[in-house]
Amino acid sequence: MTLKALLNQLKTEHKITGVVELAALLAQDKALLQQIKQADAQYWVNFSKQTFDGWYCVATPSNASYHVYYQERGQHCWGEEVFSDQHLAIATVIFESGLFHAE
To answer: What is the 3-state secondary structure (H, E, C) of the chain?
Structure first.
């Protein structure tokens, strides 16, 4: 399943409209968290360091913090934010990427 299809399903089933709502849902549902991380985002949202252009949510090796940023040509371009809460970091990267609201 694509990440976009999964997000559309969540919007319909849970009436999610914002980052905080999505983060709360992810905190309650570990299986959903894994589904989102494993869904095919067609290289637009990534959860591990890659060289693709797009949005990233990458955990530090100790999982103590999560870095959300946009990159082009393998370089951090802008928007780097650091989170201690994985659920909020994942919700933020999804919303900042525009994928949540894309048609």
So the answer is: CEHHHHHHHHHHHHCCCCHHHHHHHHHHCHHHHHHHHHCECCCCEECCCCCCCEEEEEECCCCCCEEEEEEECCEEEEEEEEECCHHHHHHHHHHHCCCCCCC
Q: Could you tell me if 78 and 20 are in contact, meaning their C-beta atoms sit under 8 angstroms apart?
A: no
The Cα–Cα gap between 70 and 10 comes to 24
Is the torsion defined by CA of 24, 28, 29, 34 positive or negative? positive
Query: Which tens digit of pLDDT belongs to each residue from 85-103?
Result: 999 999 999 999 988 987 6
Count of CB atoms situated within 10 Å of the CB of 29: 15
Q: The whole model's pTM is what?
A: 0.91
Q: Torsions phi, psi of 78, nearest 5?
A: -170, 170
Cα gap 26→29, rounded to integer Å: 5
